[in-house]
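Budget justification note: compute hours in this period were largely spent on complex prediction jobs such as the one shown. Inputs:
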Amino acid sequence: MTTPRKRPDRPAHLATVTATERTAPDMVRVHLDVPAVRDAATFPLDQTDHYVKLLFPPVGASWSWDDDDADADLPGRVRNTLPREEWPVMRTYTLRSWDRDEGSVIIDFVVHGDAGIAGPWAASVTPGSRIGFMGPGGAWHPEAGYDRVIFAGDEAAAPAIFAGIEALPYGTPATAYVEVADAGEPLPLPVRADDDGVDVVWVGRDGATHGTELVRAVTAAGIPAGRTQWFVHGVAEMIRDLRRFLFVEGGVPKEDVSISGYWRLGMVEDEWQASKRDFNREIEEAEAAAAGS
Ligand SMILES: Cc1cc2nc3c(=O)[nH]c(=O)nc-3n(C[C@H](O)[C@H](O)[C@H](O)COP(=O)(O)OP(=O)(O)OC[C@H]3O[C@@H](n4cnc5c(N)ncnc54)[C@H](O)[C@@H]3O)c2cc1C
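Corresponding output:
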């Protein structure tokens, strides 16, 4: 007998795909109509790293967001009435931009081959399709008072990096290191990338493992003089190296740095999220040992 389960406290938000466009060989931009965005009181958007948890039906599920009766309570109904293997699968994505008046958002998806749920969904979804999500979360924006803001990340972090560039305090210099498969085929530049003092440096992977070329570029450039604010996100393995560079070797204050793994090589998001705490704890222990030696 199935044990009744508590429904989640919050309903999902509903989004309807209005358009998709391939903005780079490995990147698909999905335009979504999201009525909830119109309400600033219940949908706060005051950071540049806002993300949502998209709720996908698992492969073979008996339900879909395109079902006639799908509404914001669908995840609750599924969790209360269907076995665990039918429960929504969460994938985390940044809101690249939003328009409160229109009630719309843009999400940029890395298409990393046929693997996964979200990447293939973005590559094949068509206007009219619906998806639910939880959120938004987010906790960072570039601040005035720093001598330079430095961004570093791979394609998965590019949407948050570019939203950050577009919100830079006027007059604050910034450098963004963005790793892409091929530096000759970069992503669309954000607004304000041409501002005086704003540099976007494309770091080509050229077949290397994700993150290694980014680590090389950032560490080779060194830590600029003055007070620096950092936003560093992307593949987990790169985070380990750049944390060491910033905190152990560079002595950058932790409060000036936002740094985390967005995904991990060889792990689906569920596995990465479940192991992230241990991964971070091991890194922090290694940093403490290195700092004390
Ligand atoms: C706060 C936050 C914000 C994020 N914002 C974005 C965003 O705006 N755009 C975006 O594309 N991603 C973003 N990500 C990363 C995204 O959540 C993961 O890449 C996620 O694993 C993709 O889900 P999937 O179903 O496509 O692949 P999964 O089923 O999770 O993974 C399948 C396989 O693909 C590999 N894989 C996953 N991501 C990548 C990748 N980027 N490149 C190469 N291989 C990969 C995995 O290692 C695994 O082997 C964000 C993550 C976080 C935590």
